[in-house]
Every structure is written in C-alpha cells, then in structure tokens.
Amino acid sequence: MKRVFLIVLDSCGAGELPDAALFGDHNVHTLRACASSARLSIPNLRAAGFGNIDGLEFLGSVAQPCGAFGKLAEASMGKDTTIGHWEIAGVVSPEPLPTYPNGFPEEVLRPFREATGRGVLANAPWSGTAVINKFGDAHVQTGDLIVYTSADSVFQIAAHEDVVPVEQLYDYCRIARRILHGKHGVGRVIARPFVGKGNGNYTRTANRHDFSLEPPRKTMLDAFRDAGLDSIAVGKIYDIFAGQGITEHVYTTCNADGMVKTAAYAERDFHGLCFTNLVDFDMLYGHRRDIDGYANALTEFDAWLGAFRKKLGPDDLLLVTADHGCDPSYTATTDHTREYIPLLILGEAVKPVNLGVRPCFADIAATLCDVFGLPLETEGRSFKEVFLK
Questions:
Q1: Which CATH number fits domain 3-95+214-387: 3.20.20.70, 3.10.20.30, 3.40.720.10, 3.90.470.20?
Q2: What pTM did the predictor assign?
Q3: What is the pLDDT of residue 152?
Q4: How many Å apart are CA 98 and CA 118, to the nearest integer?
Q5: What are 34-57's pLDDT values in tens digits?
Q6: Whose C-alpha in 52, 313, 323, 330 is 20 to 30 A from the C-alpha of 285?
C-alpha cells in the first residue's frame, strides 16, 4: 500500500457497549437515533456495508457490499475524544483521565488566577453554549475568565474576542496546560472564544483550539513518521496528539472544510497516512442533541464519500470509523456516550468481508502498521490477513 486515509466521524457510535451503565449510559445508540430522521440518506455507506455491521441492520444491509465492515469495542476506560483517538492510534488507557463533576479545586485555580491576573467564573460542568450565555455579561463587565468542564477530562476557557484577544486566550490555555499535569493531567485544555452584543446573546466562533496531553507512549503516528513516511493530520488530530508523530497538519473550520482538505490530499503524491477528524458530528449535533442535524451531516458525508472514492488509486486504502458515541436522542445528559465504533474499509485491494466485532480500537493501528510493515508496541491485533486480497 502507498496511502491510507483514516477518517473519524467524531462521535458516530454504533450502539452501547456492555459496560455502558458503568459510565452512566443506558440504551444509547448514536446511529439508531440518526436512523429515526427523515434527513438520513446514506446510499454510499450502505453500499460499502454500513448496514451489514452487526447491530446496524436497521440502516439497510446489502447482499454484496463493496467494502470490509465491522465494529470495535473500546478497551480504554473512557468515552472521550482524547482516549478514543489514542486507542485508535494504538494506545489503550487502563485508567480514566481525571474529571471534575464538582469543578476544579483551588490547587488548580489559584495558580491559574495568579498567572493570568484574571478571576474565574462558572467552574462547574456546563454546556458550552449555555455557559457563555449565563456568564457572558459578567465576563464582559469584569474580564474574569469563564472556566468550565464537562463529563469529559477537559478544562475549558471561554472568553469574548473583544475582551480577550484570541492569541491571548491561547496563552492562557498554555498556562493552564502547564498547571494541569500529574493527578490533574486532563486530556485537553480548550480555548472557547465567543462573540456577541450582550444580554446573554453570545455565540462561539470557529477559533476553538485544543491543547492536549501528550500520549504516554509512541503511537501509530510515530511509527509512520519514524519510518520516513508521511503522517498527515487534518482537523483537530494535531491537537489531540499534541503534535506528536505528525509530519504535516492543517486545521479545519467545519466538516465541509475537512472534507475539502482531505480530498486535496488525495490529489497529492504522498506516501503514508492521512488522518482526518470531522468534528461537527460531535460538536454541533451530538452534544446539542440535534437528531436531524446529525443525520443531515451523515447525508452530506455520504455524498462526499461517493466522489472521494474515485480519487483512490489501486494502492490506497480508506478507513471510516469513529472515536466514541454522542447519542443525539439521549436526554439524560448532553455528554458523550459509551458505544462501539463502526469500521468500513474501502479500496481496490479490499475483500468485502465481515470483520466481526473487534475487542479493541487499537486493532486499527496494529493493522495499518502491519500493512505498511511498521513496528508498533500496542495491545491491538492486526486483521490485515482478513481483508486484504
């Protein structure tokens, strides 16, 4: 193989895992929720075998799928973006990253206030859109920073772009990242800039930026880079891995932009990996519990997929998967949901086979490294021999 495109549909879960209740999730299923919407139309995904995946028959199975298909369980103790992507890249996390259901302690906030010279508002788990409308006016009046978290291992800082310029907000995030290590080593510190005229009427901008914890050991990305191959990151992949193992990256503003930039890489003569995250599924539709919006985003991806496949050469592979769930119909919380992730593999060298239910996301990393003949220490197991002609 010469090139592999690995595309993560952020949060596109394929049904709850057996241990979902331990994570507070009951009867969750992101794709089942999307199937309830009249806006879902995914003929290309169905043709590849999406509806042939165990438990996804409601999407519509086909007699002769053109891809290899299956789903994977999460071996890590988590259901967030960082842990999910790390596991896809070969690193299983047996311990969950720290979360703060009661807000951050003074041993974190005190040095943060001292280093930034600003006070702190909120300091609790919040919806990102709700927190800026609740505390936005106070922030504009005082200059204090809106600090909040969620069920995930995140320290989020929201600030109005006219009060705290974006680059200064990024500096504040770097300060927080230096403070948040050891037992307080959260997965991500996230800048959440917003705009608006006041009276609780604010909207977030596209200038979000994530400052991630570095993976604890080498990942699939390092394996590609260390072998002298390309390791390209599209979207927030660079931030998720703190730049580790990446040879080239480009940020994106939305799903459509991510698809355009991934297609542009398909026009290039590179050798190695192009790893893409499409974040809108999670950020705009999953967390906001927007079933129709989520379904429509899948429809848009499906239409793009049909054209993108024509760009693949005989030595190319395309993998489509997810990193966790975020069931838009689940009203108990607005957080991620503990689910299997789907997997489709397409390419001229791919046999249309059922990959079954794999026990670990890291099987993806093990397989891709096996395909390219790269060494990688991982709990994952390769299934190259199952699907490659």
A1: 3.40.720.10
A2: 0.90
A3: 84
A4: 24
A5: 999 999 999 999 999 999 999 999
A6: 52
